[in-house]
Structure formats: structure tokens, C-alpha cells
Design a protein that fits this description.
Blueprint (H helix, E strand, L loop, with lengths): L2 H25 L16 H8 L7 E3 L5 H6 L4 H8 L33 H15 L5 E6 L6 H13 L3 E7 L2 E2 L2 E2 L8 H6 L5 E4 L5 H16 L5 E6 L20 H8 L3 H4 L1 H24 L14
Parallel strand pairs: 1-2, 2-3, 3-7, 6-7
Antiparallel strand pairs: 4-5
Length: about 300
């Protein structure tokens, strides 16, 4: 694949995620969406770049800010909108909502609303893959706030000790809700990960989906070859509030100039002609997915305890 083709492919995927989430913003005031939403607008490049070199057999565990990873890993858009609508045709039969999306058929394992909780799941899956001799790379995605949790440290130590095929991917937007990282952490995330003997990669240009993709392709190849776990930190920026469809600059904890600096480097803002060339087909797909969700049924009472063990 040429660099031009790679750029356009990743651009399309990132734009698709953004337009999906912009449609969610439009729909949210109507109460048709039955759960809180944590939007990835501004952070799309991390998901599309990270997932590009993964196969459907490789597993990815992510956070409640999961729309981008769900779509980048190949999750079904109709089922995603149906899940947001709380409909039985959703990817979890309408019982999970935005914060717990899953598409195991393409390797997107459950997202979770509990900070750091999917990190040990990723490590467990990597242990199973190694013991069963599977050709499988496991990715655990988490935010910078998760590095403060005890299970994060236990997971890095265990994975390094047993040389497991897992990538620890830190999606660092410097915020835990309204709290800046420097107010919470007396350590540098990448330097700390090195203490466990992990090879580390750091990408400061988290808006550059080609750089993310190329770096992750190298990391995935390294882990697949049996060299053990790798740690990757990608610095990024969320444009919207922590949870919900709005902006939060009026809250006073950050200013709009910071967002403008990021937006000036965002490819989705820099190539309007390319946006317009892709927009019609993406909007057509989104319209169809929304229509699918709207005409789907809500779960019946019989569905309430189905799959509960």
C-alpha cells in the first residue's frame, strides 16, 4: 500500500468515526439514545492507527470511550446505533449502552466503565494466547488516569515477567474528567513503564494517524514475534466534555486556545476537499444505521436475564 493510499484509508476511517459521533450529538437531545456517551472527537487517529495492523483474530480491550475503537476494529455500525438506542438488535441486545460496546466477532472485547478494569482482562487473554499457542496479539487500551490504579501496575509486572503478547496502549489526553495529569501524578508514564522492563514507544503527534499506524505496525510485529509485551503512549486531545455531547471550556479548567492548537494540526480539519469527497457515502451509511435502530424493537421482558449466569 502506498503512503497516499494509507493516508486516504485512515482519513476515511477517522472521518467516519467523527461523523458518527457528530450524528450522536445531533440525536442526543431527543433522548433517543438511552445511555451516557463519552465521545472520541479529536482522538480518532489513535483508534484508526492502532487497529490498522491488527487482524480480526487479535483482541482489543478498551475503555468506556469506546465508539472509535469499536468502529476502527470493525464493529457493525447498525448494531452500534441500535445499542445506543437500547434496542434488541444492538451488539449487546440493548443492555450495555455506549460504555460497554463489544464486537467479539472482530476481536473487540468488552469495553468497561470502570477505570483500568479491562487491563487485567487483556493480560489474562494474552496469557491464554501464549499457553494455547495462538498467533494472537492482545491490546489493552486505557487512559492516563488508569496508570494510577493498582491493577495497572500488577498487570505490567505480570505481563513482563511472563513475556506475554500484549500491548499496553495509553491514550493520554492529560485529563481525568476535569483533573490534569500533573495534579495527579508525580511520575512520567513512559519512564515508569520502563521500570518493569517494557520496551516503550511515545507518540506526541496523536493527531497523525499515519504515524500512529506505522508505529503500531512495528509494535504489533514485535509482539507477534514472541518478544513479549510493549508499552505505547499516544498523546491526544478530546474536543468535547468528559461525558456528553457539549463543550466544557466554560468550566474554567482548560481554555479553548489549547483546543485550537490541536485542531490546527488535525488532518480532518486540514483537508476539506477530501472530507467532502468521502462525506456523502459515510452519511448514507449513518442514515441507514439510524433508520435500523429506530425501526428495531426494544428488548422484551424475556431478554432481561438472558446471558446472565
Amino acid at each position: 500500500m502506498t503512503s497516499t493510499n494509507l493516508f486516504e484509508e485512515l482519513f476515511f476511517q477517522a472521518l467516519r468515526i467523527r461523523l458518527v459521533e457528530e450524528r450522536i450529538i445531533e440525536l442526543y437531545p431527543s433522548d433517543a439514545i438511552q445511555s451516557p456517551v463519552h465521545l472520541s472527537i479529536g482522538q480518532e487517529a489513535v483508534a484508526v492507527g492502532a487497529c490498522h495492523a491488527l487482524t480480526s483474530n487479535d483482541l482489543l480491550f478498551c475503555t468506556y470511550r469506546s465508539h472509535a475503537f469499536y468502529l476502527a476494529k470493525g464493529g457493525n455500525l447498525n448494531e452500534m446505533f441500535a445499542e445506543l438506542y437500547g434496542k434488541v438488535t444492538g451488539c449487546a441486545s440493548g443492555k450495555a449502552g455506549s460504555m460497554h460496546l463489544a464486537a467479539p466477532e472482530v476481536g473487540l472485547m468488552g469495553a468497561s466503565a470502570v477505570v483500568a478494569s479491562t487491563i487485567p482482562h487483556a493480560v489474562g487473554a494474552a496469557l491464554a494466547a501464549k499457553q494455547l499457542g495462538k498467533d494472537q496479539v492482545i491490546v489493552g487500551v486505557f487512559g492516563d488516569g488508569a496508570t494510577e490504579e493498582g491493577v495497572y501496575h500488577e498487570s505490567l509486572n505480570f505481563a513482563a515477567l511472563h513475556k506475554l503478547p500484549v500491548i499496553f496502549l495509553c491514550e493520554n489526553n492529560e485529563l481525568a474528567v476535569h483533573s490534569f495529569r500533573k495534579a495527579r501524578q508525580n511520575y512520567e508514564i513512559v519512564e515508569h513503564a520502563q521500570i518493569y522492563g517494557l520496551p516503550v514507544y511515545q507518540i506526541t503527534e496523536g493527531y497523525d494517524f499515519v504515524k500512529v499506524s506505522e508505529t503500531m505496525a512495528e509494535v504489533i510485529k514485535q509482539v507477534r514475534s514472541g518478544q513479549g509485551p510493549v508499552f505505547v503512549e499516544i498523546q491526544t486531545f478530546r474536543y468535547k466534555e468528559h461525558v456528553g455531547p457539549g463543550e466544557d471550556f466554560a468550566c474554567g479548567y482548560r481554555n479553548i486556545q489549547e483546543a485550537q492548537c490541536w485542531k490546527q494540526q488535525d488532518p480532518l480539519n486540514l483537508y476539506p476537499a477530501l472530507v467532502e469527497s468521502f462525506r456523502p457515502s459515510i452519511l448514507q451509511e449513518i442514515d441507514a444505521a439510524v433508520h435500523f435502530a429506530e425501526r428495531s424493537s426494544f428488548p422484551s421482558i424475556e431478554e432481561l436475564l438472558r446471558d446472565v449466569v
